[in-house]
Amino acid sequence: MTAPLFKYGLFGDEISLIVAFGIGIAFGFVLERAGFGNARVLAAQFYFRDLRVLKVMFTAIVTAMTGVYVLSRMGVVDLSLVYLTPTFLWPQIVGGLILGVGFVIGGYCPGTSCVSAATGRIDGIVYVLGMIFGLIGFAEIYPMVENFAHSSALGQITLSSLFKIPYGVLVFAVVVMAVVAFVGAEWAETKFGGKKPDADSLLAPAKTLAPSRLLAGGIVGLGVIAAVSGDPYRGPFARVDTRELALNAGTKADHISVDQLADWLVQGRNDFLLVDVREPAEFAAYHIPEAINVPLAALSPDIADRTERIVFYSDGSIHSAQAWLLLKSLGYSNAYMLFGGLEEWKDSILFPRLAADATPEQKAAFDKRAATAAHFGGAAQTGVAPATGTPTETPKLAPPPPPAGDGAAPAAVKKKKKEGC
Amino acid sequence: MIETTIHRQNPMIDPAFHAWGWEIPVYLFLGGLVAGLMILSGYHIIRALWDKDRAHGHYVTAPILSLALLTVGMGALFLDLEHKLYVWRLYLTFEVTSPMSWGSWILLLVYPALAASALLTLPQTFPKLARRLPFCSRCAGALHDCPRVVQAIGFANMLLGVMLGIYTGILLSTLSARPLWNSALLGPLFLFSGLSTGAATIHLLAHVRRPDSGSDDFSDAVLSALVNWLRPPAPGHVGTQKLEHADNSFLTVELLLLGLFIVGLLSSTEVHQRAVELILTGPYAAAFWVLVVGCGIVLPLTLQFLQAQHRIRSTVVPALLVIGGSLALRIVIVAAGQASAWTVASH
Amino acid sequence: MTDSTDTSHAPRPHVNPYWAGFALGLVLLTSFVVMGRGLGASGAFSTAVATTVHAVAPAHAESNAFYAGYLGDGTTHPMKDWLVFEVLGVFVGGFLSGALANRLKFVVEKGPRIANGPRLAFAFVGGALMAIGAKFALGCTSGQALTGGALLNVGSWAFMMCVFGGAYALAWFLRRQWL
Questions:
Q1: In chain A, what percentage of residues exceed pLDDT 70?
Q2: Which of A190, B97, B159, C61 could potentially form a cystine with C67 if both were Cys, beta carbons 3.0 to 4.6 Å apart?
Q3: Can you give the residue range of the structural domain that contains A251?
C-alpha cells in the first residue's frame, strides 16, 4: 500500500470531498472536546491562566509529525506527495503578527470560530461575519499588496533542508522542545495562573506512570528512534507493478491515436495535459497546439496530480514510451502516449493524403480530415503519387498555429486550484 | 483500441443540457412540503374530533402556511413555463395518461381543500385576525358544528396530500428519456421526504412560535419568533417529542426507499447503472452523500434519536437539517437526472 | 438511566489537553495519509466569499486576482472544494460534540468586566484582522501552524512564532476583555 491514497489515485476528486467532510467532522469534534469553542478558554492562553492552546497544538503537531515521519520512514507514505505550503517568509511573518493580534482581540482563529458558532456562541458567529468582511476587504486591497504577498519566496522548503539538519534529528529536537514547553507551561500555570496541577500533570511529583506521561514518554521514544534512523521516504524511488504494466502495454490501453487527440483538441477539451518531451528547440520549431514542453531529462515526479490524464508525444514513439514508463512507475494512473508520435501526426492529421484509387467512402472521410488539417494549420494532399517510396515531396511544416502562451517552462503545468489553506 | 472517455456531465461545462434550473426543484420541494403538511394537519383535524383534549400545537398553523408555500411553489413553476400565457389550457382537457394533466387537476383540488382547513383553523391560529373577520369566524364556527364536514375536510386533506406527494415524484419518473428517474420508487420517496419535511416544519414552528408567548397578531408572531430563535428551546416539550418520533419514522422510511431506489437502478440495465453512478461516485456524489444523506437524513436521525433519549438538548437544528436535506434531495435528483440523459445520448 | 440523564444537563468538563492534542494529531495524520494534505479553515471562507462575489458581480470577481485564485478553472463548481466540505464537517462535528457534552448555548463568551456590545465589536474586528493575516500568510492556525508545523515547514514555524508573539504583545492591553 502506498499513501497518500488520494494522490495514488485510489479515489477521485468527487470522493475526496466526502472524505473531506468526514475528516472535518473529526476535526470539529476534537476541537470542541478540547474546549476550543470557547473564546475564554482560548484567550486564557495569553494570560498564562490555562495554557491549553499550547498543549493541544504542540501535542497535535508532535503526534502528526512523528506519525508522518514513522510512516514515511517505513515507506508507507511518500513524503514528497504531502502538500507543503510554499514559504514566503516576510508575508508569513507579517501575516502571523496580524493574525496573532486578531486572535487576542477576537478570541478565536478561523477553525475554532466555526466550532464556537456551531455551538451557539454569539461572539463566534459575529467573528465569522467579521472574517467574511475582512476577506472582502483584503480582496479589494489585494492588487496593492500582491507584490508583497509574493515576496521573499523560498519555495516548498522544510526546516531540515534550510538548516541542513537530518529530518529525523529535527523531529527529535521538536519533540524534546515540546516536552520542555509542556513542563514550562504547567509551571507557568501554577506560578502565574494560580492553577492547581492536574492529577496526571507532567510536573506532579508522583512516581506513577500517569497516562499523559506515558504519552510523552512514547513520543519521546519515537523521537529518539527518528533521530537515529535516517531520512523519510520521498517519491523518486519508483515502484512498478510489472504485470499491470505489461497488460497495459500489451492491450495498447496506453495509446492515444492521433485522430483521437485531434478530436479532443478540436473539441477544446481541457481535461488532459499534452506533454512534448522533445528538446526546447524542437518544441519551439513546431509543437501540437496546447502542448507544454517538458524535455525527458527534466521530467520530475510532481509534473501534475497523480490522477491527471497526461498524453506524451515525441518525434517517434521511443521517448514518449520512456516518459510513459517513468510516470507509470511513479504511480500516475492516467498516463498515455501518442501512437506514432509527431511523425504520425504530420502524416495523418496535418498533411493527409488521398490515394488515387480511393473509394467514395474514403473520399468522404478525407473531406473531414482535410477540415481537421486546416484547423491545425496543415494542408490536405490530393497527390496522385502512390505511397511507395519515401515521400520526398512532404512539405515543410507550417509555423505553429496560434502559439499557446505556456512557453517552454516545465513549470507551466496547469493547476486546478490552490491546495493550501 | 480501447475507447477511453471521461464524461463531464458538469453543469458548469454544459449548461445547455440542464433545461431545468432552480425552479423545478423548488417547486417539487414546496409541493412535497405542502403534501406533508396536508397529511399531518388532516390527520390532526380528524384526531381532534374524537379527542377534544388533543393539544393543537402548531398543526393549526399548517394549512395557512401551506397555502402560502404552495402559491410560492406554483409561482416557481410558472416562472419555468415557456408559454406563460397558455397556462389555462391545461384545464381545458383531462388526459388520463399525462401526469402533467393529473398534476394540474390535483393542484386545482388542493387549493379548496387547503382553504377549507385554513378557514377551520383560523380562529386558533390568529385569534385577533379572526375577530376582525367575523364572517370567517362565523363560517369556522358553523363548520365546527358539523363533525361530518370537518371529518370530510380532514380526509380530503390527507388524500390529496398523498396524491400531491406521489405526484411530485411521478412527474419525474414518467420522463423516460432520463434513466435516473426511471423508478417507480420516486413517488413514495418524495412523499416520505415531504412528510418528514412537513413534520420538521411544524417542529420548527413549535420552536419559533410558542403557544405561551400569547402573540395573536402576525407582526407579534414574527417578533416573538425572532426572539425565541435566540433563546434556548424548552426541554422536553410534549408535542415536539411526538413530532420527533414521527419525523424519525418518516426519515427512516425515506432512507430505506432511497436505498431501494439505488439498488433498483443498480440491478437494472447498464444505462441505469451508469445513471445512478452519477450520484454514487460521479459528479453529484459529494452533494448526494454529504448534503442529502449525511446532513439531510443520517445526522437529523441521529440527533433526534439522541434527543428522544434525553441524551442531548432539543434544538431546531434537526428540523432545519431535514428541510435543507429535502431541498438538496430534489436539486440533486433533478440535476443528476438531466445529466443522465446526456450520458445516454453520447453513446 | 434516569439518574444519569437528570444530572447530565450541566456542561461536561473539557478533556485533558494532551489527549485532545493527541486525537487532533491523529486526525491530522489521517488527513496526510489519506489525502496528502493537511487541515485548513480560512480557505473555505475565501472560496465562499469569492463564489458569492462572483455570483453578484462576475466581472469584478474575475478581474481580481485574489478572487480568481479561488474560482478555479471553471471545470467544476468553485464550491466543490476540499476545504469547503471539510469546514462543513467542522461545523457538524463541533455541533455534535457540543450537543453530547451539553455545551450548546446561545451566549457571548467574555470576561466579567466587559459588556456584550464591545465584546461583539472586538470579535468582529478580530475576525476581520484574522482574515487579512491568514491571507498574507497563506493559511491560518489550522492550515499553517498545525499542518505546516507537523511537516516542519519553514514558513509555518516562522508564522507560528509570530502568532504567539503578536498575541502576547497585545494581550496586556486587552485584559479587560478576558479577565
A1: 82
A2: C61
A3: 242-347
CB contact under 8 A, A104 and C166: yes
Q: Domain limits at B313?
A: 23-339
CB contact under 8 A, A27 and C147: no
Domain check: are A358 and A338 in the same one? no
Q: What is the distance in angstroms between the Cα of A195 and the nearest Cα belonging to chain C?
A: 15
Residue A57 burial by Cβ neighbours in a 10 Å radius (0-12, 13-18, 19+): buried
Mean local confidence (pLDDT), A145-165: 84
- Coil, strand, or helix at residue A247? helix
Average pLDDT over residues C87-103: 92
Cell of A413: 503545468
Q: State the smallest CA–CA distance between residue C141 and chain B in angstroms.
A: 26
Q: Do A248 and A302 fall within a single domain?
A: yes
Instruction: Give the whole-angstrom CA distance, residue A375 versus residue A377.
Output: 6
Look at A12 and B283 and tell me if their CB atoms are within 8 Å.
no
A361 shares its domain with A335: no
Kindly list the strands in the beta sheet with A255-256, ordered across the sheet, starting from the edge strand earlier in the chain. A255-256, A335-338, A309-313, A272-276, A292-293
User: Which residue do the cell numbers 499534452 mark?
Assistant: A274
Mean of the per-residue pLDDT values for chain B? Answer: 77
* Beta pairing partners, A272: A309
What letters, b where the CB count within 10 A reaches 16 and e where it falls short, cover B110-123? beebbebbbbbbbb
Above 50 in pLDDT, residue B320? yes
- Mean of pLDDT values over B297-314: 87
Instruction: Flag whether residue B234 sits within 8 Å of chain C, measured between CB atoms.
Output: no
Place of cell 514558513: C155
Which has the higher per-residue pLDDT, A6 or A58?
A58
Residue carrying C-alpha cell 379527542: B51
- Please, are residues C148 and C156 in contact by the beta-carbon 8 Å criterion? yes
Same domain, A377 and A358: yes
Q: Which residues of C touch A83 (CB under 8 A)?
A: 36-38
| pLDDT, tens digit (0-9, with 9 covering 90-100), for B250-291 | 999 999 999 999 998 888 888 888 888 888 888 888 899 999
Report the phi/psi class of residue A67: left, alpha or beta, with left for phi > 0 and alpha for psi in -120 to 50.
alpha
Residue B184 falls inside a structural domain: yes
The pLDDT of residue B231 is above 70: no
Are the C-beta atoms of residues A4 and C30 closer than 8 Å to each other?
no
Contact A157, C154 (CB under 8 A): yes
Answer yes or no: do A14 and B281 touch at CB < 8 A.
Answer: yes
Q: Which residue has the cell 520526398?
A: A392
**Cβ contact (<8 Å) for A107 and C107?**
no
Q: Is A294 left (phi over 0), alpha (psi -120 to 50) or beta?
A: beta
CB atoms within 10 A of CB B153: 24
Show which subunits contact C, needing at least 3 CB pairs below 8 angstroms.
A, B
Name every chain C residue with its beta carbon within 8 A of the beta carbon of B303. 99
